[in-house]
Design a protein that fits this description.
The protein is mainly alpha-helical. It has two domains: 114 residues, no CATH class; 139 residues, no CATH class. 61% of the residues lie in helices and 10% in strands. The strands form two sheets. The protein has a three-stranded antiparallel beta sheet with strand order 3-4-5. The protein has a two-stranded antiparallel sheet with strand order 1-2. The longest helix has 48 residues. The radius of gyration is 28 Å and the shape is flat. The protein starts with a helix and ends with a helix. Keywords: Membrane, Transmembrane, Transmembrane helix.
Length: 272
């Protein structure tokens, strides 16, 4: 079993707005962020010599990092570091690392190329004169943009209204309606769910805000959700909403009934 099968790695050509994006599913890890074929070839050569017992390349420079992750090639495997470059969070066996590099490099070199427009590939298949490619591609891009400018404003506006409505609904429900009910149990999980719901819907509302404008559509198209950005931006608001919802529960009638029930039980236990 090779590394691609071992880590269940699948290579996919994803086409978004006519543009090809090469991605991988499974356990390719940080290697997927290396899009430079020359860098991949260099890492493959370094790994091959290390496997063969020649450590000269890693003694000079063991760095096999990507633009997002820091990793070092060692005789025992590739050590992937944490963000602070203090602790090793993963070790990839050398042979597995080499096979993954080769597989990813070969996929990047297989048409359609990463970043290439599917239009160009179609023109090549139809054996159209390459001298006409630029003109035809520009015409196709203009038609794609025209379609986007026609459909995206309504779609993006509807999505914005949906998330904004959910944001307001979550605010009203978890900050006003729910605390006013006689709820004595489950305050912590309800506060967590409420905080996450408010935070997520608020983030999506901001993400889609003004996304129906022409300038936005020409530059971005449709907003793209990034999990890392979400956690970075929403962590503090989520915590604040959690404490705010919890405080509303505690100051509401349900919690007072809960405290009254506990007090009654304590008094009864003290009575003979």
């Amino acid at each position: 079993m090779n590394a691609l099968e071992k880590y269940n790695i699948k290579f996919i050509n994803k086409i978004v707005d006519g543009r090809v994006y090469k991605i991988a599913t499974g356990g390719l890890g940080y290697i997927q962020s290396i899009k430079s074929v020359s860098a991949l070839n260099e890492y493959i050569d370094m790994t091959t010599t290390t496997i063969n017992g020649d450590f000269s390349s890693i003694e000079e420079d063991p760095d096999v990092s990507s633009s997002y992750e820091v990793a070092f090639l060692t005789p025992n495997g590739v050590e992937v570091m944490d963000r602070d470059v203090e602790n090793v969070i993963d070790v990839i066996p050398l042979q597995d690392f080499k096979e993954m590099l080769v597989g990813w490099r070969d996929f990047l070199l297989t048409p359609p190329l990463n970043g290439e427009y599917g239009i160009e590939r179609s023109l090549k298949q139809k054996e159209i004169n390459p001298d006409e490619f630029d003109t035809l591609i520009e015409v196709a891009k203009d038609k794609i943009l025209e379609h986007q400018l026609t459909t995206y404003p309504k779609q993006n506006r509807r999505v914005f209204i949906l998330w904004l409505s959910l944001f307001v609904a979550f605010l009203l429900f978890f900050l006003i309606i729910l605390p006013s009910l006689n709820i004595a149990n489950g305050i912590i999980p309800l506060s967590i769910v409420g905080a996450m719901g408010i935070s997520f819907s608020g983030f999506k509302s901001i993400l889609y805000y003004k996304s129906w404008k022409k300038d936005f559509i020409e530059k971005v198209g449709k907003p793209k959700f990034d999990l890392q950005t979400y956690f970075l931006i929403s962590s503090l608001p989520t915590i604040l909403f959690y404490f705010l919802i919890s405080w509303n529960f505690i100051s509401g009638p349900g919690y007072n009934l809960y405290k009254l029930g506990i007090t009654s039980k304590v008094i009864k236990s003290l009575l003979p």
